[in-house]
Amino acid sequence: MRYDLVIFDNDGVLVDSEPLSNRHLAAYLTELGHPTTYEDSVRDYMGSAMHRVHDLIEERTGQRLPADFDDVFHARVFAAFERDLKPVPGVAEVLEKLTADGVPYCVASSGSHERIRVGHRAAMLDRFFDDSRIFSSQDVGRGKPAPDLFLHAAERMGTAPDRCVVVEDSPLGVQAAVAAGMDVYGFTAMTPAEKLTGVTRLFGDMRELLPLLTGGDGAEN
């Protein structure tokens, strides 16, 4: 194993939640008078904490989103998760192998603790993540692209940043991992490779990850 700790992003890496989440976010913003397409939502908000949505809308329009925006949005998304959320293909096998080999891993997500847990239960990944392995942007002052969340996860897991690898699929997450001084493997199943600038390696199928982590070949950035 190349690393002492594997840090997974959640949305789009562990659970296939980005299409569901961004469809609902685009629809809700449009409903509130801020026309947003699915493509707009993916471009502007994928991989970010909720405060970025508030900040960008206020910056662009001078208007604030309703005080209950987060609660309404999460209620809609969680209902969709319960109906339709699936794990990213191949990720359960990766987690099973890391667990069997005793390799430390955790999740560090821009989403809230509640969002992470709801998604894991719906996708049947909760057996891999107890509380000690779950870190959220709620735990730190600044979310991605700041490095704070990844540095917090490494500290709590007792690992030096340069011994960590982050598995990410968003430009903001890649920026955060690079700023934290960690290697980062860019997952291109949903994000074009050219948008994940600064990654250590690129891969497009979760089945490719274990060989990369153990020293196998992969696509260099």
What does this structure look like?
This protein is α/β, with parallel strands linked by helices and 221 residues long. The chain is built from nine helices and seven strands. A seven-stranded mixed β-sheet has the order 3-2-1-4-5-6-7, with helices on both faces. Helix 6 links the parallel strand 2 and strand 3 (134-136). The relative contact order is 0.17.
Strands, helices and their partners?
Layout lengths: L4 E4 L9 H14 L6 H8 L4 H12 L7 H16 L6 H11 L3 E5 L3 H10 L11 E3 L11 H9 L7 E5 L2 H9 L3 E5 L13 E3 L5 H5 L5 E2 L1
Parallel strand pairs: 1-2, 1-4, 2-3, 4-5, 5-6
Antiparallel strand pairs: 6-7
Write out key terms for the chains shown.
single chain, 221 residues, alpha/beta, 7-stranded mixed beta sheet, 12% strand, globular
The low-confidence parts are none
- Number of helical runs? 9
Percent helix: 40-55%
Tell me what portion of residues adopts beta-strand conformation: 5-15%
**Biggest sheet, in brief?**
7 strands, mixed
User: Which structural class do the helices and strands define?
Assistant: alpha/beta
Quantity of strands, as a count:
7
